[in-house]
Design brief:
three-stranded antiparallel sheet; 29% strand; elongated; Immunoglobulin-like; alpha+beta; single chain; 185 residues; six-stranded mixed sheet
């Protein structure tokens, strides 16, 4: 064997030896990570399928929402004139044609959200304008909402302090809801 081929043979053996060592270290690291993960999972109980003290959660199947509003009943009971004791933030005066509005919360700080919700039975897909009372006149607030399945909801924010009076208005039928008062303080 020539001295040049002997050096090549030693060099090849060094490369093979280094490759085997790197492979051995990689296997050792993999085993350490795997064993560590196994110990952590077992000690934390993450491998168990027990639902714990709360039990299993019952989930009802999803059912689609109706696409049309329910008809307005024509046989409404006559009020007895007796107070019911129920206090609401939905004033009864001013409501015409079944367009109703309620606001929550009724006391807010400037810049806080005011939720406006209501009903307009039988008028699906109608656009409604939110209006604010300024003196004796109503002014569009710049917010619109749409009736879906007889109900609607939107929200407004105002920095104007004091009692703010809102309503929604249907420009197609020229119908306004009742007024709601929100105190901004």
């Amino acid at each position: 064997m020539s001295p040049g081929s002997r050096i090549d043979e030693e060099r090849r053996q060094l490369f093979v030896s280094a490759g085997v060592k790197v492979l051995g270290v990689a296997v050792a690291i993999g085993l350490a990570i795997g064993l560590g993960t196994y110990v952590v999972v077992k000690s934390l109980g993450l491998d168990e399928t027990d639902t714990g003290a709360l039990g299993q959660v019952h989930v009802d199947p999803v059912t689609p929402l109706p696409t049309t509003a329910l008809p307005v009943p024509t046989d409404l009971p006559t009020p007895s004139g007796e107070p019911s004791g129920l206090i609401t933030n939905t004033p009864t005066g001013g409501a015409t044609g079944g367009l109703t509005l309620s606001a929550s919360p009724v006391f807010v700080k400037p810049g806080e959200r005011i939720n406006l919700t209501g009903t307009w039975p039988g008028h699906d897909a109608m656009g409604l304008l939110v209006q604010r009372k300024l003196g004796a006149d109503w002014s569009d607030f710049g917010v619109q909402t749409q009736v879906s399945v007889g109900t609607y909801d939107t929200w407004v924010i105002t920095n104007r302090t004091g009692d703010q009076i809102f309503r929604v208005y249907d420009p197609a039928s020229k119908t306004a809801s009742n007024e709601v008062k929100v105190t901004v303080q």
